[in-house]
Amino acid sequence: MADEERFWYEDGLDPEDLAFHRLHGPWKRSTPADALAMMSRYDGEWWIAGGWAIDAFTGVHRAHEDVDLSLWKRDVEKLRLHLRGTYDLWSNAGGRFRPLTDEESEHPEDADQIWLRKHALAPWEYDVVVNPDRDGRWVFRRDPALDFALEDITWRAPDGVRYLNPEMALAYKAKQARPKDELDLTAALPLLSADQRVWLADMIEHLHPGHPWVARIRAV
Predict the structure, then answer these.
(1) Does domain 25-164 have CATH number 3.30.460?
(2) What's the gap between Cα 97 and its chain centre?
(3) How many CA atoms lie within 13 A of 9 on its CB side?
(4) Per-domain residue ranges for the chain?
(5) Could you give the CA distance from residue 3 to residue 187 in angstroms, rounded to a whole number?
(6) What's the sign of the alpha-carbon dihedral 116, 118, 119, 120?
(7) pTM for the model
C-alpha cells in the first residue's frame, strides 16, 4: 500500500489490525494523561480499565492501542454534554454505530461502547466502555449476577486517575487471553497479594472452568 493511502494508519500494523482500521477508520493512540485532561471538568465518576490499569499497577509499560475509559451507562448524556463541541460520540452496539446528537441523544440499551472522534475526517481516539450499575453498584459484565461497590474494585493513582483493580482487569482479560493479556498477567502476577491471587483464580475458575491461568495463578 502506498504511503499516501495510509496517511492515518500506523506503520507496522498487522494484517488483522490494518483490516480493522480500513473498515472502521484509523485510530490515534491516547494515554491516561490524555484522558485525564479530557475529563478534567467532567462532573461524574470515571475510571480506566484494561491494559493501562495493569501498567499503572505494575509500572511495566507495553504498547497499547487505546485507553479503556469507563463510566456509568446512566451517565452517557452527562458525557455527551461534557464533550459537546469537542468530540463526536458514536454508540457502538456490536458494530452497529449511531451518532449521539442533540436531536437523537438516546444511547441504545444494547450498546456497551461509545467511540469518540473530533469530526468525521479525524481518527478515533477513545473507546469508552459504559458500565451498568445495580443500585449504584458496579455490575460485572462477565457475570451480571455479581455486583461490587466501585470503591472496592478500583484504586486511585497519585495523578488522580482511578484504575480498575488488577485482579478485576485480569479476570476480564482471561476470556480472550491474547498475547497482550498474557504479558499483563506475567507483569502483574508477582505483585498481586495472596488475597488478590485467590480471588482471581476463583473468579476465573467460576467464569471459565479449566482455564490454564488458574493453575498458573495458584502456583505462585
Answers:
(1) yes
(2) 18
(3) 21
(4) 25-164, 166-220
(5) 36
(6) negative
(7) 0.89
